[in-house]
Structures are given as structure tokens and as C-alpha cells.
Amino acid sequence: MPTLAIDDRVVRYEEYGAGPLVVLVHGSPGNGKAWSRVGERLAGRHRVIAPDLPGHGGTTPQAPGEVPDVAYSATLIEALIGRVGAPALLTGYSYGGVVALAIALRGRVSIGALALLEPVAVPALSLTGDLDLHARTRAVFDGYIAGVEGGDPLQVRTMVDFWFGSGAFEGLAEPLRGYMVREAATNVRDVRGALREDYSPAALRRLSMPVTTLVGGRSPEVTRTIAQTITTHVRRGSLTLVAGATHALITTHAEAVAEALAALVPGGP
Asked: Which residues does residue 51 pair with via DSSP β-bridges, in sequence order?
């Protein structure tokens, strides 16, 4: 698999297809292969780059003693974009949506369009004016962090059930359920970083590219609220519902997601 060396760090990524460049940023836990069902549908007309985020797959993690920071991930993906070229479309899913949004807000690389699939940008709830919703959601993840860091990786069920729906963790096949438990500590670091993000109306308004959020029609209302809040505050925002989908939409509704993303590529269909 291709890799990019950055000082003493490495970014590993998937690359396939030809055409306008689409960069796909995965969620947590996971790696670039999580995009395979969507990516293979885009590859006929697009060049697809799907990096592993730091601490996942083959990409160098942030140092253990450092405060978890989305900026670390953003910096490595920006370096990769500097190598492969400016994407016609930068897409982030779940935690990857937080990273992709951070890259756009930092403004250090050129992006044709931005797509955020179910971004778990909890701090954006502070812009809704519903302080109780923000506090209740934050409390769920503060409790999750405390549980895992207190030695109970099975608390990952809290995260899974919150985004995918009640009972979702128990419904996972055993190999995937075990994977989620093993990766709970890594996910907690990502959650910590995501909760530290700060979104201001002024910063979101400065985004010049089209910004589209995609949300599953069966996803929790808080997911749609986060997405709608982001699109409301940017200059050129829109929200697309993927009928029948949950937070697992890049797996269960790959065809619909690929079609929606292809339509967002400037100059595309």
C-alpha cells in the first residue's frame, strides 16, 4: 500500500481509480479500507485516495503523552493532499467528518467541495441554542471516556448504541464486536479530540466551498441536528438524507452514498 513519509511519521493510504480526485477520510475505529464499497463505485470515474487516520491502520499515531488533537490528524492529511494534489471533493465520515471539517476550516489546502457524512461534531450543538441538548450529549461521551479509561473497554457499547441506535452493539457479529472492544481506547482518544473542537459561526461562514452533509434517514435526531447546524452556518450548505440508512451508511448504502458523492464533484455528473 502507498505510504507518505513526513519527518519521522508515516501516512498510509489506499489509492485506486482515475479521474477527478476524491479524498475519503474514515471514521473511528477503522482505516481507509472502510471506504472500499463506496470507493470501488467511484473508481470508474474518479481517482480515490483513502488514508488511514493516525493510530489506525498504518499511519503514525499521536504521541501517547500529548493531548488528543484533531489538528494532528488534519496536519497529516494536509501533507498527503500536498503530495497527491488538491481534491475535487474531500469527504469525511463520522470522526473523519470532524477531521475533514477541521482541514476545511484551517484553509491550508485547496478543496473543491466538502462532504460530511454523519459528522460526530458534538461541539457544533452549542450553536443550536439548545444548551440542554449539548450538555446531555456531552455527558454521554464524558461518561464513555471515563468508563473506558477506568478499565472497562466494554463501555464502547455506549458509543455504538448512541450513533447506531439502541441495541446496535449487541447486534454486531462477534468479530466486529470484539474489534470495537479492542479499539475502544483508540476511539476514546479520537472522541477526546473531537470534543475539544470549537466551531464559531464566523469560522464556518468563511468556508467558500460547497458543504454538503449526508445523514441516514434512520439515524438519531441529534445526528441530523449536528449536520443541519453545520450546513445552516456555512455559505453554501445543503443536507442530503439517505433513505433507510443508519450511521452504517457507507457499508449498507454504498451505492446511494457513491451516487451522492459523485454528484458533488465539481464538473461531475
From this structure: 13
pLDDT digits (tens, 9 = 90+) for 237-251: 999 999 999 999 999
| Distance, CA of 80 to CA of 10 (rounded, Å) | 10
The residues facing 92 across adjacent strands are 25, 116
Largest Cα–Cα separation, the chain: 50
Give the span between the Cα atoms of 261 and 269, in whole angstroms. Answer: 10
> Contact 75/109 with Cβ under 8 angstroms?
no
What's the predicted TM-score (pTM) here? 0.98
240 DSSP β-pair partners: 214
Angle between helix 156-164 and 174-182 (nearest 10): 120
Residue 140 C-alpha cell reads as 454521554
Note the Cα 263 to chain centre separation in Å: 19
From residue 212, alpha-carbon distances to 16, 34, 41, 93, 182 in Å are 24, 20, 19, 12, 33
Asked whether the predicted pLDDT for residue 4 surpasses 80, the reply is: yes
pLDDT tens digits along 12-35: 999 999 999 999 999 999 999 999
Check pLDDT > 90 for residue 148: yes
Identify the residue with better confidence: 269 or 142. 142
Quote the DSSP letter at residue 49.
E
CB 245 within 8 A of CB 253: yes
Question: 119: closest CA among 176, 197, 183?
Answer: 197
First and final C-alpha spacing in the chain: 30
20: which 3 cell numbers? 477527478
Say what the pLDDT of residue 1 is: 83
